[in-house]
Amino acid sequence: MIIYLDGRFVPEEEAKVSVFDHGLLYGDGVFEGIRAYNGRVFRLDEHIARLYDSAKAIDLAVPITKEEMAEAIKETLRKNNLRDAYIRPIVTRGVGDLGLDPRKCEKPTVIVIAVSWGAMYGDLYEMGLRAVCVSVRRTPPESMPPNVKSLNYLNNILAKIEANYRGVDEAIFFDTKGYIAEGSGDNLFVVKDGAIITPPTLNNLRGITRAVVLEIAESMGITLLERNLGYFDLYTADEVFVTGTAAEVGPIREIDGRVIGNGKPGPVTRQLMAAFKTITQKEGSPIDG
Ligand code: PMP
C-alpha cells in the first residue's frame, strides 16, 4: 500500500509519524472520510471544503492548497490501483513537545490513506440494522462543535462501545438538551406519514451523504423537514435510516427493542438507497483526469 505523507508517496512501512505529533498526543487535527466509486471520487470538492473548514475552526492552516489536496487524493488512488475505495485524508497539528500549546508545532502533518472497502454493513442493508439510544451525549456545540470533523472521536467511540455492549449495530446519540443528534458515525433520518425529517446540523456533523439524500428526496417530491426530534419520533417512525460516507444509506429496523415500521427496510428508505447507488455510480471527479 502506498501512502501520501507530507508531499511524498511512500510504502506503508515507511509511512511513520512521530510520537510527538499532536494528532497522537491530543487528537489535535482534522480528517475526512471520502469514497471513490467506479473510478470517480464522490463529492470530492465538498469533502475538501469541509476538511479545510474543520481546520479553520481549530486554527490549523493546512500547508497545501485544496487543489493540491485533491491531486494528492487522486494520485494516492492511482498509485494503489484503486477505482472503488475509502479515502482518509488527515491533517494534524504536527510535531510539538509534550505541552498542548499548538504554537510549539512547526508544521502540520498531512496524510492520505486509501483502501479498498465495500459495503460497511454487509447483508444488514437487506435486513436492517438494530440500534440503541446511548446514554453518552453528543459533545455540545458550545464545547466542541460536531461540525469540526476532528481527530478526537472519543465521544463517538464511547457511543459505539455502548452499542457494542448492548449487542446492536449502531448507536443513536442525543444531545445535552434531549434532542436527537446523530449516529456514532452517520446522520439520522426518520420517515413519518410520507415526510422525511432530520435534525438541523448544530448538534451533528453536516453530512455530505445527508445533503445528497436531501437532494434526492427533493427531486422525488418527498416532503422534507429539518427539525428537532425526540425519543417519541424515533419509536413511532414509519422508517428510520442513517446516512454516511462509510455507512451509505443504512435502514434501521429496531431501536431500543421497538420494532420500526414492519421491521424491514421501508419503501422510502429503499427508494433512497437505490437512487443513492445510481448517483454514486455516475457522478464524481474522475481519478484519471
Ligand atoms: N456524523 C458523524 C459523526 C460522522 O463521523 C459522519 C461520517 N463522516 C457523518 C455524520 C456522515 O457524514 P458524511 O455523510 O459526510 O460521511
Task: Give the structural class.
Answer: alpha+beta
List the total number of helices: 8
Low-pLDDT windows of residues: none
Order of helices and strands: EEHEEEHHEEHEHEEEEHEHEEEHE
What Rg is obtained from the alpha carbons, in whole angstroms? 19 Å
Q: What does the largest sheet look like?
A: 9 strands, mixed
Average pLDDT over all residues: 97
Strand content: 25-35%
Global outline: globular
Organism: Methanoculleus nereidis
Family: Belongs to the class-IV pyridoxal-phosphate-dependent aminotransferase family.
Keywords: Amino-acid biosynthesis, Aminotransferase, Branched-chain amino acid biosynthesis, Pyridoxal phosphate, Transferase
Protein name: Branched-chain-amino-acid aminotransferase
Q: Would you kindly provide a written description of the structure presented here, covering whatever features stand out?
A:
The chain has 289 residues and is α+β, with helices and mostly antiparallel strands. Helix content is 28%, strand content 27%. Strands 8, 9, 10, 11, 12, 13, 14, 15 and 16 form a nine-stranded mixed sheet that branches. Strand 14 and strand 15 form a beta hairpin. The model has no long low-confidence stretch (mean pLDDT 97). 4'-deoxy-4'-aminopyridoxal-5'-phosphate binds next to helix 6 and strand 14. It catalyses: L-leucine + 2-oxoglutarate = 4-methyl-2-oxopentanoate + L-glutamate; L-valine + 2-oxoglutarate = 3-methyl-2-oxobutanoate + L-glutamate; L-isoleucine + 2-oxoglutarate = (S)-3-methyl-2-oxopentanoate + L-glutamate. Keywords: Amino-acid biosynthesis, Aminotransferase, Branched-chain amino acid biosynthesis, Pyridoxal phosphate, Transferase. InterPro entries: Aminotrans_IV, Aminotrans_IV_CS, Aminotransferase-like, B_amino_transI, BCAT-like_C, BCAT-like_N, Class-IV_PLP-Dep_Aminotrnsfr. Belongs to the class-IV pyridoxal-phosphate-dependent aminotransferase family.
